[in-house]
Amino acid sequence: MTEISSVVSAVNQTWVLTVTFLIFFMHAGFAMLEAGQVRSKNVANQLTKNMLTWAVGVTVFFLIGTGFSSLMSGGGFSPAAGSGGYVGWLYGAVFAMTAATIVSGAVAGRAKLRAYVTYTFLLAAVIYPMILAFTWGAPGDGLVKQLTGTAFADFAGGTIVHGMGGIAGLTAAAILGPRMDRYGEDGSINVIPGHSMTFAVLGTLMLCFGWYGFNVGTAAMMTGNGEGAMILNSEVLSLAAMSTTIAMATGAIGAAGVAYLRSGKVDTLYTANGMLAGLAGITAIPNTTSWWGAIVVGILAGAQLPLVFEFVSETLEIDDVCAVFPVHGSAGVLGTLLMPFVAVPGTVSSVGGQFIAQLVGVVIIGGWTLTATAIIWYAFKAAGEARVTPDHEQDGLDIAEHGVETYPEFGGDRVATDGFGPTEDDEIRTDGGSDDHEIRTDGGRELRTDGGDPELKMIMSIIRPEKLGDVKKALAEVGAPSLTVTNVSGRGSQPAKKGSWRGEEYTVDLHQKVKIECIVADVSADETAEAIKEAANTGEPGDGKIFILDVDDAIQVRTGKEGTEAV
């Protein structure tokens, strides 16, 4: 028997660690998802918050949080440090850090880093451990059983982890206030699209992969049967695998369907968020839910997403940047409350009694989370430490909080492209000159006064991107093959169009174009411009413009040739 027990323990320990690493991988998904939904000027800040959530959170949970949870559940202060039960601590830590990192998406773009990190410290030390103390970590069946006579059911953290994180994020976002550009003075809503749909979708799929660690991983534990054999509860494992997958799929369907009914378009971000909402909805109950129940939970969790997000942003005027409340909060709570109605036959002895227990558990967890979070963030706000300054928010938190730019190649004159910058005593010049020379205003050469034309001309054209190939061919045919091509955006006679970000429409009046610059000397500028015009013309507004400019001089870098010889 002892031998079998040792084998069971070894198998379970190995499996728990495997599941733990899978759940940890979800932080990569959160990082990508959140980074994709914020402006490019705030990406580094969001990534840093995700890393510090883990770094600070697991350390605090190790030294304080585990012990505090033990203390509040009546077992005395018994921290993980020095206990030797490190596998169990780490397994609990990845759940705790998932709850913590959810909050970062709600307060993106305006929370001070030190305020967020301090909140993470307190969440890992007190807020989340308190929830553990009367749920998973409680003796017997926990506080809810003592109050209602029926145990609160939350198998993998639908409300304990995701609902808690969503409620905490919404509370913090409400206290912080919206981003400075989110709402107009007249109450109108300004859409602020994230900078990368690709990041958001890839992050979503990474989270879906890791989520199997939450739900299915929790179910796959071995036991001994007392007769020298190991037993795997295959029925529970099978239910968890099925319900997790089905709820994920139908969550996407529910969100996409509601978005389509409301706007006539299948919104990409709502579809992605719907997958996560379906997963959050089923996380409390994957071990007890029937196949049809998984469909119901998934569709409802996905369908509520656009409606709740709209209510939060338009009615409550809370700027939940990454939609953490409808994705994790309301979806997780919804699935938890649906437990007695969608369970397989024989699981629940009393539908009404179980529903009351679920409701009481949700109220206790939600009430504690909201109260504790509100106290902390109101304290930050009163001390002037909750939010960055308007200037820093406008410039972006990457520069203000970290001194870096996520995409430095698009930076301004402070970015050195050769690896060297000014010394401490040197002032960065923005006029292209130096301190010991007078700034020229004539372009560096004597101006022509005889009315003659310069020998060099620049033909600069703004055209549709799809016409670039035709224009290149036309230029080669007239003997002007040399050119410089740049991707640009702008507006002119082409009408504006509508864009959409998570179901919210906004006006796109800067159209993507291609700028072609061509210097000619021996070839007629008029002939070159005509060739471009014919090749780029479609007859529709937005075909572009052509400009013919005088060029004072040209110098070939390699040979030093000047004027027409350099072209």
Give an overview of the whole structure:
- The protein is an alpha+beta fold and 567 residues long.
- The chain has 2 domains: 2-184 and 194-223 and 237-402, Ammonium transporter fold (Orthogonal Bundle), CATH 1.10.3430.10; 456-566, Alpha-Beta Plaits (2-Layer Sandwich), CATH 3.30.70.120.
- It is built from 17 helices and 8 strands.
- Helix 16 runs antiparallel to helix 17 (525-536).
- It is elongated.
List the helices and strands and how they pair.
Blueprint: H1 2-24, H2 26-37, H3 43-72, H4 86-106, H5 113-133, H6 142-148, H7 158-176, H8 197-219, E1 222-224, E2 230-232, H9 234-263, H10 268-282, H11 291-315, H12 324-342, H13 351-382, H14 390-395, H15 397-402, E3 456-463, H16 468-477, E4 484-490, E5 497-501, E6 504-508, E7 511-520, H17 525-536, E8 544-551
Antiparallel strand pairs: 1-2, 3-7, 3-8, 4-7, 5-6
Helix pairs in contact: 1-4, 1-8, 2-3, 2-4, 2-8, 3-4, 3-5, 4-5, 4-7, 5-13, 6-13, 7-12, 7-13, 8-9, 8-10, 9-10, 9-11, 10-11, 10-12, 11-12, 12-13, 16-17
What proportion of the residues is helical, as a percent range? Answer: 40-55%
Distance between the termini: 89 Å
What is the total number of structural domains? 2
Radius of gyration: 30 Å
Shape designation: elongated
User: What's the oligomerization state?
Assistant: single chain
Walk across the major sheet and give the strand order: 4-7-3-8
CATH class of the largest domain: Mainly Alpha
Residue windows where pLDDT falls under 50 for at least 5 positions: 411-453
Strand content: 5-15%
CATH architecture classification of the largest domain: Orthogonal Bundle
Mean pLDDT reading: 87
What kind of sheet is the major sheet?
Answer: 4 strands, antiparallel
Number of helices: 17
Number of strands: 8
CATH topology of the largest domain: Ammonium transporter fold
CATH-defined superfamily of the largest domain = Ammonium transporter AmtB like domains
Q: Classify the secondary structure makeup into a structural class.
A: alpha+beta
